[in-house]
Amino acid sequence: MARKKVDMSEAYDYLREKTGSYVLCFDVQNLTAFNNISRKAGDLAILEEALRIDKAATDDMMVMRIGGDEFALISGLYDLDTVKVLAEKVLSKNGRTIMFEGRELPLSLYYGMIKIPESLRYSEFFTDMHRTITNSKK
User: What is d(CA 6, CA 102) in angstroms, rounded to the nearest whole number?
Assistant: First the structure.
């Protein structure tokens, strides 16, 4: 997977341009089970999560890793129904397995959504994205 260097001020400007649009937040369900097998299995689960999100995203969307196994997809979309279709593209793969050392391991993701606020303060929004993920687990 290619890495792209991003200046955080550029990311902040991108977020400000997308004010009011939806952000989809994702997290691996039960990453601990993968890590209990091995850290490599956990890393593979995170990589697969990123690939699933990236495949659903269009070129004008931004995917950000916001934590160990937590990602945000900045959709730039304002229509809730369109956002739900996008989320379903990612979630439709829940339960599909990944292969690790000859073992099939089912991978599923949690997800929540949040809008980019009018008065964007990155630190607060970052906290809100994490809260969105936490709430999706309930």
Answer: 36
Domain CATH for 28: 3.30.70.270
Residue ranges of E strands in the chain: 22-28, 62-65, 70-74, 97-100, 103-106, 109-115
Q: What is the CA radius of gyration of the chain?
A: 15
Q: Could you give the angle at the alpha carbon of 115 between the alpha carbons of 114 and 121, nearest 5°?
A: 105
pLDDT digits (tens, 9 = 90+) for 71-113: 999 999 999 999 999 999 999 999 999 999 999 999 999 999 9
Has residue 2 been placed in a domain?
no
User: Global pTM?
Assistant: 0.89
To 10 degrees, what angle do helices 122-136 and 8-17 make? 70
Q: For residue 39, is it within any domain?
A: yes
Enter the tokens of residue 43: 């890393």
Domain count, the chain: 1
